[in-house]
């Protein structure tokens, strides 16, 4: 699967979920903060596909606190809609990872939101710590699957 990031195509992980009633407001529309939670769902699934989990990273002494997050809303989702979260790694350094997201409604494929999240790599005491090869190598291989023009 590939993420359409503007004019380029990059490898992506895909997660699916159905909008729960508790995620909607009084008008039956998904409340905006839920998109950030769905970004996390996408990140977790991407990491699992690469053979690791957040829990494992924490056990190895790494944390990924958010430094910055963006979300651009394109259309609304409603209760019981099926949605698809496409997640990819946009930028990667040993001390910082930036993920990119696209959220679509299924089955019509309507783009609901796009966004990014940038994460510092720290130790358990929130001090910057370079990411080990155990995690860098799968992330790097994942990004290497992209066409040469996919990273700007």
Walkthrough of the structure:
The protein has 152 residues and is an alpha+beta fold. It has a single domain, classed as Thiol Ester Dehydrase, Chain A, CATH 3.10.129.10. Helix content is 23%, strand content 36%. It contains 3 helices and 7 strands, in the order E-E-E-H-H-E-E-E-E-H. It has helices at residues 33-49, 54-59, 133-144, and strands spanning 2-5, 8-11, 13-18, 66-73, 82-93, 96-106, 111-120. The strands form 2 sheets. The protein has a 5-stranded antiparallel β-sheet. The radius of gyration is 16 Å and the shape is globular. The two termini are 19 Å apart. The model has no long low-confidence stretch (mean pLDDT 91).
Q: Using the alpha-carbon principal axes, give the shape.
A: globular
Largest sheet: 5 strands, antiparallel
CATH superfamily: Hotdog Thioesterase
Strand content: 35-45%
Structural class of the helices, strands and pairings? alpha+beta
Q: Which fold does the CATH topology refer to?
A: Thiol Ester Dehydrase, Chain A
Distance between the termini: 19 Å
> Quick one: CATH class?
Alpha Beta
N to C succession of SSEs: EEEHHEEEEH
Overall number of structural domains? 1
Mean pLDDT: 91
State the total count of DSSP E strands. 7
The radius of gyration over CA amounts to 16 Å
Low-pLDDT runs of 5+ residues are none
Name the CATH architecture.
Answer: Roll
Percent helix among the residues? 10-25%
Biggest sheet strand order reads: 3-5-6-7-4
Number of helices in the DSSP assignment: 3
């Amino acid at each position: 699967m590939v993420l359409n990031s503007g004019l380029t195509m990059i490898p992506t992980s895909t997660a699916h979920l159905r909008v729960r009633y508790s995620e909607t407001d009084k008008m039956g529309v998904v409340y905006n903060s839920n998109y950030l939670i769905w970004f996390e769902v996408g990140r977790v699934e991407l990491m699992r596909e690469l053979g690791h989990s957040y829990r494992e990273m924490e056990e190895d002494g790494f944390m990924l606190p958010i430094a910055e997050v963006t979300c651009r809303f394109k259309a609304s989702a409603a209760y019981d809609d099926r949605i698809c979260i496409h997640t990819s790694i946009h930028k990667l350094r040993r001390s910082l990872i930036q993920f990119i997201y696209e959220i679509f409604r299924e089955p019509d494929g309507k783009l609901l939101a796009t966004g990014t999240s940038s994460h510092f790599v720290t130790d358990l005491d929130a001090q910057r710590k370079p990411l080990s090869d155990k995690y860098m190598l799968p992330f790097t291989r994942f990004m290497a699957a992209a066409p040469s023009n996919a990273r700007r």
